[in-house]
Amino acid sequence: MDAxxxxxxxxxxxxxxxxxxxxxxxxxGGFVLLLVFFIGSVFIERFFCRYFCPxxxxxxxVSGKRFYRIQRDEPACTHCGLCERTCGMSxxxxxxxTICSGQCIDCMQCVTVxxxxxxxxxxxxxxxxxxxxxxxxxxxxxxxxxxxxxxxALGVYHLDQYATDSYTDGAYxxxxxxxGVYTGVGAGFRGDVExxxxxENGYITDITVLSHTDDMSFFQKAESSVISQILSTQSTxxxxxxxxTFSSKGIMHAVANALGVETQEEIQNNTQSNNQQTQPNFxxxxxxxxxxxxxxxxxxxxxxxxxTLELASISDGxxxxxxxxxxxxxxxxxxxENGKITDITVxx
Length: 348
What we know:
The chain is an alpha+beta fold and 348 residues long. It has helices at 7-14, 19-26, 29-43, 47-51, 54-62, 82-86, 109-113, 125-145, 150-153, 216-233, 245-259, 264-276; strands at residues 70-72, 98-99, 119-121, 156-158, 167-168, 171-172, 180-187, 192-200, 203-211, 317-324, 329-337, 340-346. Strands 4-9-8-7 form a four-stranded antiparallel beta sheet. Strands 2-1-3 form a three-stranded antiparallel beta sheet. Strands 10-11-12 form a three-stranded antiparallel beta sheet. Helix 1 packs antiparallel against helix 2, helix 1 (7-14) packs across helix 3 (29-43) and helix 10 crosses helix 11 (245-259). The longest helix has 21 residues, at 125-145. The chain is elongated and about 95 Å long. It starts with 6 loop residues before the first helix and ends with a strand.
């Protein structure tokens, strides 16, 4: 599912603490769904579980064959209805002596509140809960034992696992990168992603994730896909994982940062910014306008994303420029005095 349509992904964005991410989450379909679930839960207990949970629908199909069921002692029952009013899933408990509804989640609230103690279950909830926990732990351990490569599970990826046309049976042709071991950082969903990249014979041979602060479930999904693509294509310009876009881009940017190259996204942003920026033109309106002491327009007043910009060569004045933001164009006003930037104002 697209991250913007997933209410759980939107919930993660809203709790990320990143104001720009939080504001972007509000104008999405996933936010609307999340709002519906919150409002519905105020008025109806277990609103999502009862009407929207796809896993709950699946469990309903098989729960009729459960190992134990709640039994109702009909002669002792006074039909007070307290059990039904307490049931969070609104199961009809007074119409049968054996409760086998697929909606029943075995919360045992009906058993607890029954004044005549005419509802019972065997085995007891405590035994059942313990058995379920043990079974789940056992399944997790079985899953861990069946992982084919433990190094991959730890965030270490090797080129041998993703052989390309230029790398077969350990034999390399010369690649495009400079040999060495590098570290790089990229912005993930909740913070920086740091990686270590090894280059041999010009090829990226190992990528190790050193640290990250993203949610583990989302990051692991992005990690396995994005890194395998980078190793197999020998490029950082790969596809993001739907539902883990921020983590995907964080990994790409971290690897690109380590190698000293630009991702395709950065190249496109720079190209768009270069196309949008124009030279300042005194006294005329436009995307970029200068007012000040001199009517001599300075050349290349905005050297986009360049760390070698010489401010001393720019005439004093006020300039406006535009850049591509997350959902549209960002316009700023920049004031230059005595070769220094003295003021930056976000116009829109």
